[in-house]
Amino acid sequence: MTHRIGYARVSTDDQELALQLDALSVAGCLTVYQEKASGKDTERPELMQCLKALRSGDTLVVWRMDRLGRSLSDLVKTIADLEARGVGFESLTEKIETSSATGKLMFHVFAAMAEFERNLIRERTQAGLIAARARGRVGGRRKKLDEQQKKEIKALLRDPDISITEVAKRYGVSRTTIYRNVEIENLALPENKGS
Fold first, then answer.
1. Is 163 a catalytic residue?
2. 82: closest CA among 111, 106, 52, 41?
3. Which of 13, 23, 49, 172 maximizes the CB count within 10 A of its CB?
4. Mean pLDDT along residues 147-154
């Protein structure tokens, strides 16, 4: 016997699941897994339980596709995994379902368009970086410490009464930044004091 199993998610405690639950009920889902978790969270225990409960011939139903995937690539991977297990997928809002040939085609066109968009963004980014380099600009983060500051820090740390923590506060950086950017191996540091 096949089942239509629903999954509903909202991102914050302030949001309500009622709209999704009503739509999933009307769509014939007798079982609905629900949770309040950000779509960016990798830990979504209810979704994991839902995916485990699905059997070949079942259909996973969501109110909207973004309820299921953290990103488009994540969504495509999840639906491909379901398809490999013989489980259908249906999104009520987008009217996409993968149990028919037309639905599968629509989903794959959608996924291909998303891949195309990602490639365009990558190409534009690369072109922008090349153009910036041609004008003498280098990408990446601005360095937290310039060469003059590194020399000053090195001089300060020669004083046995000054700790790395004090210097880091003075320059508005972390101790890690100082360790990464200033050669301090041969300096005698009072590090346990004031750290």
1. no
2. 52
3. 23
4. 87
